Every structure is written in structure tokens, then in C-alpha cells.
Amino acid sequence: MRAVCFDLDDTLFDYHQYVRGGLLAAAAALEARTGRDHGEELLSLYFEEGVTDATFDRLLSRHDLSPSLVPELVEAYHGSPTEMRLSPYPDARPTLDRLADDYALGVVTDGRNGHAKLDVLGLETYFETVVVTPEHGISKREERAFRLALDDLGVDPARTAYVGDNPVTDFREPNRLGMRTVRLRRGRYRDRTPEDGARPDHVIDSLDRLPSLLEPNPHP
């Protein structure tokens, strides 16, 4: 048996879709508290001003609102992915269709709500295992995240590829395990330089290239 495991956010879909839906959900929660709609301002903070860390803190500070509201806004942000409009990248479903007959497929993601995201994207049925690391109290910086997927699929690391977009978190542990690593260079981390030990075996700019890259498989 051969297998391919994927990251989710920015690999199978544009994570900015999730961000937009989450920010609007947080804005609705804040409006219920304050009576004021800050939705457009939140979107502007994140997408135009580039405040992608501590976005809620910045907004609350601007309006002299209590920072104690942050946990509630974070919970609202992640609360309802089934109500969001999420679409896979155009090349995601055709690639999964091409791989499904010859490979066992899995997902290993550090993002919250992985199962719900896949369900909304209409992709969940492609995967025999989905490891959402926050549900296990781990991250992709730990070998166990990938071991869980390999054990579920019943495959050897040497016969498994891992496809992701973030060179900081996606490739170090798969490299150590002897998995074949493929970087999809797009999304938030397209210009990030990988560190030693975290360099992927291959770099592609579209999932369309993945099936031909994996064949012929050099592993026994």
C-alpha cells in the first residue's frame, strides 16, 4: 500500500476564506455585546493593514474595550465553519480523484475544525484518516502527529508522501521519518525559506503536478 497525506489550510483550500468567515462571526459576537458592527474594520485590519496576529486585541484597544473579550471572540472565530462559504482550490478535487485509485489518502492538520472544514469543502470522503492535531494535544512539530496517520493507514513511511505549504511546520518530522515531502508553494507561506532539516524533497506550484511527480514511485 502507498499513501499520500496532505496538510489542509492553504494546501487544499485558501485559508483566507476561513479567516473572513471567522472574523465576521467574531464581529457578530462583538456586536451582540456592544451594539456596534466592527465587521468591516476587522476585515480591513487583517487583510489591508496586515494585522494578522492579535487582531482582536488591536481592535478592542482602538475602541477602549476590555481585552477580556478576546477569548469569546476567538471562540466565535472558530465556532461555525459549517456556516462558512469554503471552496477547495480548483486543482484539489481533480488531483484527489487521480490519486484515489492508487493511494490511501490522509490529512494531518494543525488547524482547528479540520473535519468540519473538509465536510464543508466536500472533500472528507476522499480520506481514510484525518488527524486534527489540536484534538490530540499535539502539533506537526511532533513525530506522533504523523505516526497517528501512518498507523491509521497501515503504511510504511518510506511508501508515503506528505504534501504541505508551510516549511516551518510541515516537513521536518516527515523528513526524519523517511517520508517523501512535497511543498506546495502558494498561500501565506509561499515566500518563507525552509530551515535545514525542514527542506522538502520537491517543490510544486500546483497540485496538478503531484500525480506525475509521484510516479514512478522510487520507493519499493
UniProtKB/TrEMBL annotation:
Segments of skewed composition (Basic and acidic residues) = 190-208
Cofactor or coenzyme needed? Mg(2+)
**Domain of life from the UniProt record:** Archaea
Would you tell me the protein name for this molecule?
HAD-IA family hydrolase
Q: Give the originating organism.
A: Halogeometricum luteum
Q: Quick check: keyword Translocase in the entry? A: no
Question: Which InterPro entries does the entry mention?
Answer: HAD-like_hydrolase, HAD-like_sf, HAD-SF_hydro_IA, HAD_sf
Region: Disordered, residue numbers: 186-220
UniProt GO MF annotations: hydrolase activity
Q: Which UniProt keywords apply?
A: Hydrolase, Magnesium
User: What Pfam families does UniProt report for this protein, alphabetically?
Assistant: Hydrolase
The UniProt family comment states: Belongs to the HAD-like hydrolase superfamily.
